Amino acid sequence: MLATFALAYVYDTPSYITLNNCYSSAHSKSELNKNLRTFAVQLVPTNNSLCKQFTAQIGANLTASSATFPIVSMIAKDFKYGLTNELVFQIPAGIDLSTYQDENFFSVKIFTFQFVTETQLLIYEEIKSDLQNCFDELRIEILPASLKLFLSPTKQCVIQIISKATSPNIYIAQATLKLQAMEFDIAPALITEPYQAHTDITINIPITNKIYLSLMDDAYFDSKIVLSRTRF
Fold first, then answer.
1. Architecture field, domain 17-126
2. Cα–Cα distance list, 145 to 17, 58, 206, 209 (Å)
3. What is the per-residue pLDDT for 97?
4. Which is nearest to 55 in space by CA: 84, 31, 27, 33?
5. Which ranges in 58-208 belong to alpha helices (H)?
6. Position 17 pLDDT exceeds 60
7. CA atoms of 55 and 51, how far apart (whole Å)
8. Short-list 25, 23, 44, CA closest to 106
């Protein structure tokens, strides 16, 4: 006799205990930085003693009020209610922020294996990068036949320092090194391409012997990089 058996699989579905009123919806907020591709959630606790059960490792989901923006998630390993008041969500590379429009509000869900709480974030802000901080370092080495320019990019201007090939309507059209009273043109791609790749920039600028001797006579150099954007 051939016996047949039916196998039944039983899965445990997590059953969370919901803790309400852990954070103030009226004062907590979300901040988007498109250049750094982060959402920072600033949480204002209500000091609800029950919420002190959120300790150690927690998971968190950030959800927009519309379906145009996907849910982003994170894990915080050293979370402590009342002391950990900022969660930073890294936005995945596949999400296009260039056409992102302001949402009405977001909500953040914080959970452990046992507890969960959800807070609406009624305050939304977009953080604008300080364009004076596009580079960590600007260094110039003066050689007899050239200037060697060293730039160390930050990630704060990746939307602004962009090429025409990537962004035909708004792009860096001109780059200039201003050194003392002199100006030296730089091909924009020498800056935009490594900037987008987050790599250090080294540029050689040819100079005449007259310019070399003039610069060597100066004990102090006033230098800066000027990047001009074109908008169509």
1. Sandwich (2.60)
2. 72, 58, 6, 7
3. 76
4. 84
5. 189-196
6. yes
7. 9
8. 25
No. of helices (H) and no. of strands (E), the chain: 2, 15
How would residue 60 be classed by pLDDT, with cut points 50, 70 and 90? very high
Residue whose C-alpha is closest to residue 45's, from 81, 77, 75: 81
Enumerate the domain spans of the chain: 17-126, 131-231
Q: What is the pLDDT of residue 8?
A: 47
Residue that is written with structure tokens 């939307």 in the block: 159
Q: Which three-class secondary structure state does DSSP give residue 215?
A: helix
Mean pLDDT over 62-81 rounds to 87
Q: Is the pTM of this model over 0.70?
A: no
Single out the residue of 47, 29, 49 nearest to residue 39, CA to CA: 29
The pLDDT of residue 66: 72
What number of other Cβ atoms are within 10 A of residue 136's Cβ?
Answer: 11
- The secondary structure element, H or E, covering residue 154 is none
